[in-house]
Amino acid sequence: MIKNYIKTAWRNLWKGRVFNFMNLLGLSVAVACCALIFMTVFYEFSYDQFHANIDKIQQIYSVTNRVTGTEKSTAMPVPLAPALKSEYGDIKYITRSANGAALIKYGNKELEKDVHYVDADFLRMFTFPLLQGNVNSVFNGLNNVVITESTAKALFGNEPALNKTILFTLGEEQVPFQVSGVLKDIPGNSSIYFDVLVRFEHFPNYKSGINKWDNWSHLAFVQFKDGYNANTFPKQLKPFVEAHYKGDIDLLKRDGAKPDENGSLLSLHVTPFAGTHFSNGFSSVEGNPVSKIYVLSLLAIACFILIIACINFINLSVARGFTRAREVGVRKTLGAGKWQLLTQFWTETVMVCLASTFIGLALCALIISPFKAMFKSRITLSMLFEPMHLLGILVVFLLITALAGFYPALMMMRYKTVAVLKGNMGNTAKPGKLRNTLLVVQFTLSTLLIICTIVTWQQINYLSNKPLGYNKAEVLSIPVSRGLNGDKTLQIMRNELRNNNQVVAVTGSFMNMGMGNDGSSRFSVLGFDMDGKEIRTNVHRVNYDYVKTLDLKLVDGRDFSSQFPGDSTAVVINEAMARSLGGKNLIGKFIPMYPEYKSQVIGIVKDYNFKSLHDKIEPVSLLMRKEYEVNYVFVKVKPGSLLHAYDQIKQSWKRQFPTAEFTGSWLNENTERQYQNERRLSNIFVSGAILAIVISCIGLLAISIMIVIQRTKEIGIRKVLGANVSGIVLLLSRDFIKLVLLAAVIAVPVSWWLMDNWLQGFAYRITIQWWVFVLATLMAILLAFITISFQSVKAALANPVKSLRSE
Fold first, then answer.
1. Are 74 and 155 in the same domain?
2. Are strands 620-623 and 76-77 parallel, antiparallel or unpaired?
3. What residues contact 680, with CB distance under 8 A and at least 6 apart?
4. What would the pLDDT profile of 128-146 be if each residue is shown by its tens digit?
C-alpha cells in the first residue's frame, strides 16, 4: 500500500515538475540558510556553557549615582576581593581577573603569549580541566604558572611540562616561574581566553594599588555557597561599601547626586557570568562580547525565511491543486475516501520536503565557508550531526511538512466531484482569505527587510563618512609587541624613521584610535576634586608630537614639546574638559589631577571622537605621565604613497625587532573595525531581504499561474471583445498590488519602531526619512508587478480561440 502511494506520488510530482522544482528551490534555499543561521545562533548561545558552575558564577560591578547620571562599571580595586572573602561567609570562591601579555622564554625558544592574572579560586570556579597538576595546589607558590596544552607543546615539545622553569619578561625584568599545571586547550566558545595563568600578585598594578580603594583596574568574579540568594548580596554589602567608600560617598552628596531607591549613592552588585558574552552595557567584560541584537536579528531572519518558504509551499501546492481538480473528482467517483486522498497528497508533500531537506543540507555544506567569512561565524559542518541539531532538523522537517502539507491537501479534498467533472471550478476554488493573508505576510516581511536594509546602510555610510576631528587617512597605528618596553620602542622607531622622507611625524600613545589588528582598545577614567566639585576625565598618556601626528586642531595654547622640561607634568585638554573646568582663561592654570603634583594646562584642542560614534565626546586629558605605558606607536606619512610607506615602516620594524610581530594598521581601518557588528547586521538584512524577495516572488508567480488558469476563458472573451494586452495585465495585477500595498502599510510602522530603537544606540545617528518607506514600498510593488507580468503577458498574448476551445 505504502509502495503504491509512493509510486503514484512520484508520477504526480514528475507530471508537475515545473511547480515542484519551484517548491524544491524555495524550500532547499530556506533549509540551507536556516541551518547555517540556527547553528550560528546556537553557537553564540553556547558560550561558556561548558563551565560546570556556570549558573552559580557572578560578576561584581559597581553602580555610582552621579549628578550627570548613573554609571555602571565592572572595574574593581585590588583590595576588594580579599576583603569580601574575609568579611562574608556566604562567599565560597572569589577571584580577581586581569588580562595581560608577556614574552616567555625556555632555552632558545621565545613566545609571545596571553597572560591571565588570577587568584587561586579561579580554577575552582571555572571549568578549565587540568591535564597535569592538582587544582588545589597549582597556585600554592607565588611563582607557580599554569599553561595550556598547546603552549606546553610549543615550549617543551613532547617533554613533561610539570616543574619546568620558564622565564617571563614582565615589564623590564625577567622573572622565573615553575610550571605547576597544564590545562586542556580553551574551547572556541569561551569568553575567557588565555595561554598562561599566573598569580594576581604579578599584575602590574598590584603593588601600587594594594591599599587603594579608588584604583579600579580589573574584573572580579564570585561564587556563593549553595542555597544563597545572590539578589540579597547588594543589601548585605551596603555597610561594607559605606565603610570603604565613605570619602567617595561624601563627595557625591556634596555635589548633589541623588541616591537610588535603596538610598545608595554608590553600591556593589552582581550579574550572572552566563550573560556576559552578550553586550550588557558594561565597557569591560571578558572576551569580545557580541550584540544580542545581532544574534536575535539572525534568529528572526531565519524564522522569516522559513515562514516565507512555508507560505510559498502552500501557495504553490494550491496552484498545482487547480490543475489536479479533475484527478480528485475521478478518484472520488471511483471510491477514494477522504483519508486515502489525504494520505496520497501528504505523501507527495513528505517527498518534496524530504528532498528539499537533503538538497538544503548539501547546499549548506557548499556555502558554509563564504557564510562564515561574511558573518564572522565559527561554526563547523560537524555541528550539523550533533544530536541536538539533528533533533532540531527533524522537528523543523515535521513542522514544515505538517503546516505546508495540511491546507493544500484539505482544500483539494473539499472539491465537489460533480462540479469539477463538469468543468465548473468557479465555485470550488475561490481565492479565499487565507491565500491573501499568506501573501500579505510574505510581502510584509519582505518590505520590512528592505526598509531595515536601507536604514542600516544609511547609518553605516554616515558613520564611515562623518569627520572625527583627527587625521585617520594617513596615520599608521603600530601596537607595541608583548615583552617590549613602549617608551624604548617609540624612541627606537623615532630614530629609525627620522631619515625616511615619507614620514611626517612619529608619536606614542597609551590608547589606540578605534580597534587595531591586535583587537584591543584601552580607556582610563580619572576623577579628582577641584574647587569643591568632582571633575571626571578620560586620561590619555601621549608623547611629543601627538597633536601634530593626528592633526588635532589647537584652539588655544600649544602641544607638548621636548624644549619644555616641565611638560612631563603638564596637560593638554579638549574643549569638553575645558567646559568641565569652567571654560575661560585655562592656559597656565594648574589642576590637581594627582596628589603628587598639580598639572598645568598648556593647550586646548578642538573636540574629537576618540571613542566610537556610539558615544558622545567626553572630557579627555592628554598627559605624559610615565605611570601609563606607551602601547601604540603612531606614524604619520605623506599622502599619495601609503602602500609604499607602509612597506618601508614594516621593514624598519622588522630590522629593529626581528622576533616581534608587526600588526600595524591605518586609523581609518581601525575606526571602521569599531562598527563590525553594524556591518554584520547590514549584511544580514541584505541577505535576508534578497532571499525573502526571491522566495516571495516564486510564490507570487505560482499564484499568478493559478489565477490565469482560473480566468483563461475570461481573458479569451475580453480579447475577442477588444481588450488590449496592457489592460489585461493591469486587470490581473491590480488585486496583487493592493495586497502588496496593504503589506507595506503593516511593515512601515513596525520597521520604523525597530530601526528607531536600534539607532538609539548611537550618539551620532541619521534621522529616518519618509522616502525610505516610499522607496521600499515601490520596490516591493515593482518586483511583484514584474513577477506577475511574466504570466499575465503570456496569457494576454495567447490566441483567444485556443482559450475558448479548451473546454
1. yes
2. unpaired
3. 294, 375, 376
4. 999 998 888 889 888 999 9
Type of residue at 539: V
Residues present in the chain in total: 807
- Compute CA distances 14 → 8, 10, 347, 392, 767, whole Å: 10, 6, 14, 30, 53
Same domain flag for 160 and 36: no
Given 227, 246, 275, which residue is the final one in a domain? Answer: 275
Q: By three-state DSSP, how is residue 165 classified? A: strand
Same domain (yes/no): 415, 489: no
Contact 392, 361 (CB under 8 A): no
The torsion region of residue 220 among left (phi > 0), alpha (psi -120 to 50) and beta comes to beta
pLDDT digits (tens, 9 = 90+) for 408-460: 666 666 655 555 555 554 444 444 576 778 788 888 888 898 898 899 889 88
Q: Is 50 helix (H, G, I), strand (E, B) or coil?
A: coil
- Using left for φ > 0, alpha for ψ between -120 and 50, and beta otherwise, residue 50 falls in alpha
Q: Which of 740, 749, 734 is nearest to 792 (CA)?
A: 734
Which of 668, 762, 667 is CA-nearest to residue 291? 762
Query: Helix 486-497 to helix 642-656 angle, to the nearest 10 degrees?
Result: 120
**Is there a single domain that holds both residue 647 and residue 505?**
yes
CB-facing half-sphere around the CA of 511: CA atoms within 13 A: 19
Question: 496 to each of 35, 47, 510, 584, how far by Cα in Å?
Answer: 53, 45, 21, 42
Strands (E), 239-381: 266-272
When the pLDDT of each residue in the chain is averaged and rounded to a whole number, the result is: 82
Q: Total structural domains in the chain? A: 3
Instruction: Sort strands 571-574 and 599-605 into parallel, antiparallel or unpaired.
Output: parallel
CA distance 571 to 352: 72
* Domain-located, residue 387: yes
Most confident of 342-351, 474-483, 599-608: 599-608
Q: What is the pLDDT of residue 429?
A: 44
Residue with cell 490566441: 799
- Which residue type sits at 236? Q
Domain ranges, residue 647? 475-672
Give the C-alpha distances (Å, rounded to integers) separating 730 from 547, 624, 652, 710, 724.
66, 74, 70, 16, 10
Average pLDDT for residues 229-257, to the nearest whole number? 84
CA distance linking residue 41 with residue 392, whole number of Å? 13
What's the grid cell of residue 102?
608577556
Q: How many CB atoms lie within 10 A of CB 385?
A: 9
In this structure, what C-alpha cell is assigned to residue 283? 565597557
In the numeric block, which cell numbers belong to residue 747?
511593515
